[in-house]
Amino acid sequence: MTSSPADPFGAASERRVAALVADDRVHGLATATTAVATPTPPTRPTGGATVTEDRWSAAFWDAHYDTRPQIWSGDANAALVAEAADLPPGRALDVGCGEGGDAVWLAARGWRVDAVDVSPVAVERARAAVQRAGWADAVTLTAADLRSDPPAAGVYDLVNAQFLHLPPDVRRPLYAALADAVAPGGTLLLVLHHPRDLAAGIPRPPEPELFPDEHELAGALDPDRWEVLVTDARPRPVTLPDGSTVTGHDAVVRARRRA
C-alpha cells in the first residue's frame, strides 16, 4: 500500500485507526493475536466484536495490525523528514515505530536506531522492512510497553515520537521519560494530531484529552533544560471517508536539550 503525495500518512490508514480507536470501532481481537495475561482487562461488545478496554495494549494493537498485511505507507512521517533532515546522525529512539518507515529513513541517513512498539506484530513488520532496505545492522527492534518499561535516561541524540496519543495521566509521565532519554545537546521531536481536527470533521476519537496542542506539549518542558525550537500547528490535507478533502493539522514540537 502506498499513500498519496497529498496525504503522506495514508487516508485509508487514518480512517482505519479512527474506526478502531473511536467508540464506533469495528475490529475485535483476532485469533492470532498475542494472548492477554490474566487477569484480563474489562471487555465490551462493539460493532459485533469484543475488544479490550486498554486501547494502548499489545493485544489491542496486534489486533489492529492483523486486520491487514500492511497498514501504513512505508514512508517516513513528514514531520520527521522536515525536522530531522539536517541533524547530525547519532543514536535515535523511534517510539511507536509501527511498520518501520521512520526507522528505515533514519538508518539510511546514518543513525543508529532503537525502534520500539507495543505491538509485536508491528515490530516484526518493521524488522522485515529494515531487512529489505539493508539496514538490519543499524536498527535494533524491540516490542515493549514504554508505560511500564521507559527508556534509559540521557542516551539518545534524537527521540522521535509520532502520534502517540494517550490519556493525560499516562501521557505526562511517559513524555517526561521520553524527554529524560535525550542526551545533552540532543533533540526531542513530538508530533500529534492537533485538537483542531476534532472540529474539522476528521475521524478522530471524540476524546479531547487525547489531543494536546503544541503549546501544551512545549509548556511541559523545563526551560532551564530545554530550548524549544519549533511549536507549530502544521497543516496538511486529509481525505475524509466520503472522498472529500479538508485541512488537518499536526501539533509539532522540536526542542534541543541544553548541555
Walk me through what this model shows:
The chain is α/β, with parallel strands linked by helices and 259 residues long. It has a domain at 76-161 and 173-182: Vaccinia Virus protein VP39 (Rossmann fold, 3-Layer(aba) Sandwich). Helices cover 26% and strands 27% of the residues. The protein contains 7 helices and 9 strands. The longest helix has 14 residues, at 120-133. It is globular and about 45 Å long. The chain starts with 10 loop residues before the first helix and ends with a strand. The model is unreliable at 1-52 (pLDDT under 50).
SSE blueprint and pairings:
Elements: H1 11-21, E1 43-46, E2 49-52, H2 58-65, H3 78-84, E3 91-95, H4 101-108, E4 112-117, H5 120-133, E5 139-143, E6 156-162, H6 168-180, E7 182-193, H7 214-219, E8 226-239, E9 245-257
Parallel strand pairs: 3-4, 3-6, 4-5, 6-7
Antiparallel strand pairs: 1-2, 7-9, 8-9
CATH topology of the domain at 76-161 and 173-182: Rossmann fold
List the helices and strands in order. Answer: HEEHHEHEHEEHEHEE
The radius of gyration is 18 Å
The low-pLDDT segments are 1-52
- How many angstroms does the end-to-end distance come to? 42 Å
CATH superfamily of the domain at 76-161 and 173-182, called what?
A: Vaccinia Virus protein VP39
